[in-house]
Amino acid sequence: MASDSKSYVNLGGYQIPKKMFDGMSPMERHKLMMSLRSLQKTKMESDQGKYLDDYDVLKRKYQFVHDADSENNSLLQKYYKSICNKYVVCYLSGYKEKQIGLRWRTEDEIVCGKGHVICSSNDCNNTDLKTYEFLFRYEEGGTQKETKVKLRACMECAYKINYGEIKKYLKKKSKRKKDQPGGSESGRSSGESEGNRKRGSSSSESESSRKRGRSSSEKSEGSRDRESSRKRGSNRKRGSSRERASRR
Q1: Contact call for residues 92 and 164 (beta carbons, < 8 A)
Q2: Backbone angles phi, psi at 121, to 5 degrees
Q3: Largest alpha-carbon pair distance within the chain?
Q4: Cβ–Cβ under 8 Å, residues 77 and 68
Q5: Is 38 exposed, middle or buried (0-12, 13-18, 19+ CB in 10 A)?
Q6: How far apart are CA 150 and CA 130, in angstroms?
Q7: What letter does residue 119 receive in the DSSP assignment?
Q8: Is the entire prediction scored with pTM above 0.70?
Q9: Strand pairing report for 8-11 and 99-104
Q10: How far is CA 124 from CA 23, 109, 198, 245, in A?
Q11: Which residue in 90, 91, 88 sits closest to 104, CA to CA?
Q12: Please, are residues 35 and 112 in contact by the beta-carbon 8 Å criterion?
């Protein structure tokens, strides 16, 4: 019996082979536990003979924070509580006005992983996520409540969530730059001075290059003149030598 109990995982009265359970991916395991929890909850309500009208069903289903402590304290309920009271779905259409809407996830969204495996934004399905935590104050049943909630968001949606803080930071940074002595004016003047120095050095280099060019041209011209003079001198010498030879 001991060996049999170790080879199975007890999920709210459902015996799942441990080997199969361990071989599942996180998403498969999550879906299995959520499905079993739904079956367990249906069975409990059926056994109690409790019939709810449509209003009671909707009120319980869309309650912002589910009271999992009042349910059977099984492994399934512990797992459900560990994810149910943490992650929410958000609406970011009014993010520029700092208006972010939050709601609790439906059963279907919890099962498919929306809000903690898939981006919390209502119209986003990205899975490369980071976690952001907020203290959320709300009214429920005429009572003011507050709870910490987590948003799992991609980079694009995280920018929208933190838009107000980012804008405030950039505004302060810009103001600090303007308040610095000499601020942007000194930056521009130093840039202009640097540009003038560079242009001056470039013109000096061009002038020296032209001078070197003229010098080399003059040297080449002088060399050609000397060469032609030597040639004329040697021709005259050869001519006088031939004249002397003919006289003899």
Answers
A1: no
A2: -65, 135
A3: 156
A4: yes
A5: middle
A6: 10
A7: -
A8: no
A9: unpaired
A10: 29, 13, 52, 112
A11: 88
A12: no
Interhelix angle 163-179/183-247, rounded to 10 degrees, is 70
Structure confidence by residue, pLDDT tens digits, 156-202: 999 999 998 888 888 888 888 777 766 555 545 555 555 566 565 55
How is residue 80 annotated by DSSP? H
Length of the chain: 248
CA 82, CA 76: separation in Å to the nearest integer?
10
Q: What are the residue ranges spanned by the domains of the chain? A: 8-48, 52-83, 86-170
If you search the block for the tokens 């994810």, which residue do you land on? 83
Q: How far apart are CA 188 and CA 23, in angstroms?
A: 65
What CA dihedral angle connects 232, 238, 243 and 246, to 10 degrees?
-160
Residue range 5-38, pLDDT digits in tens = 578 877 767 788 888 888 887 677 777 877 787 7
- Residue 126: count of CB within 10 angstroms of its CB: 14
Separation between Cα atoms, residue 55 and residue 58, nearest integer Å:
5
Whether 99 contacts 87, CB under 8 Å = no
Closest of 34, 152, 38 to residue 87, by C-alpha: 152
**Kind plus residue range of the DSSP H or E element containing 207:** helix 183-247
